[in-house]
């Protein structure tokens, strides 16, 4: 199935320097921590901050194209879509690396004991998501691409289909996983994919025009998220409480979700393991390029971006003085 992203909205000419529009995921991540603890308000005094929640990276990308948001967080696979759809944005930040917060889970009643037992089964996942990409990598590795039925479902429909017995398995993320685990069994999670060289994560993109017009505000935005990452390391309990309160979930659920992801520090962001620097592209970006090749093969994007395109797509702050402020 082709999943090309058609973006027809008109580009916004809004240049209001007092407003910052931020597209978010309703998940206990660095943005949630920063919002709850008023990090944004402290860094942007007098600015009008507008947070817009998106259920999918497709919608977030449309908003970036139209100028409806200045920043947007999404799965890195949708970042690849943004690049190939010529949305004028840059990859700015890795919010979190997926681990056991995303899993391939099967119903205990299905008698599926290993990956090969998926043959002939129905598996649900949200298409064009990091989970979808991870699932397709697994199916390809085990030569099951044409031997299973993969169904496109959002997380709510996955839970409903699971309860009705309409699906045998799902590749999805928390908190949906919690609702499946009582009668489910995990076959693998996304940390395994990372070990195979197919890391996935949530990333934040910034509009090119906003970056050009307001580079200092972009720098401040990154510092806000970096502060949330530092808090998780220095006071994990406070970070979890803040994330839970902001997203409206229990502290135990927030803890489970956050422990399933890796939040990297700002100096790691610009290391060769992640975004890299102006001289060397990072490993995470290289793995995004691998994802792009795979997605092109699956006909979910119109072409496979090359090394130079990913390098130009990634915005990196230069020099140690940035994160030592």
How would you describe this structure to a colleague?
- The protein has 15 helices and eleven strands.
- Helix 5 (130-141) links the parallel strand 6 and strand 7.
- It has a six-stranded mixed beta sheet with strand order 2-1-3-10-4-11, sandwiched between helices. A five-stranded mixed beta sheet has the order 7-6-8-5-9, sandwiched between helices.
- Residues 1-13 and 319-325 have low confidence and may be disordered.
- The radius of gyration is 19 Å and the shape is globular.
- The longest helix has 20 residues, at 215-234.
- It has helices spanning 30-36, 39-43, 57-66, 76-84, 130-141, 155-164, 176-180, 190-195, 208-213, 215-234, 236-247, 251-259, 266-269, 283-297, 307-313, and strands spanning 19-24, 48-53, 71-75, 89-98, 102-107, 122-125, 149-152, 169-173, 184-189, 201-207, 261-262.
Q: Give the overall shape.
A: globular
- How are strands sequenced across the largest beta sheet? 2-1-3-10-4-11
Number of helices: 15
Radius of gyration over alpha carbons? 19 Å
Q: Indicate the mean pLDDT.
A: 91
Report the order of strands and helices: EHHEHEHEEEHEHEHEHEHHHHEHHH
Strand count, sense and barrel status of the largest sheet are:
6 strands, mixed
The count of strands amounts to 11
Fraction of residues in helix: 40-55%
Low-confidence stretches: 1-13, 319-325
Strand content: 15-25%
Q: Which structural class is indicated by helix and strand composition?
A: alpha/beta
N-C termini distance = 48 Å
Topology:
Layout: E1 19-24, H1 30-36, H2 39-43, E2 48-53, H3 57-66, E3 71-75, H4 76-84, E4 89-98, E5 102-107, E6 122-125, H5 130-141, E7 149-152, H6 155-164, E8 169-173, H7 176-180, E9 184-189, H8 190-195, E10 201-207, H9 208-213, H10 215-234, H11 236-247, H12 251-259, E11 261-262, H13 266-269, H14 283-297, H15 307-313
Parallel strand pairs: 1-2, 1-3, 6-7, 6-8
Antiparallel strand pairs: 3-10, 4-10, 4-11, 5-8, 5-9
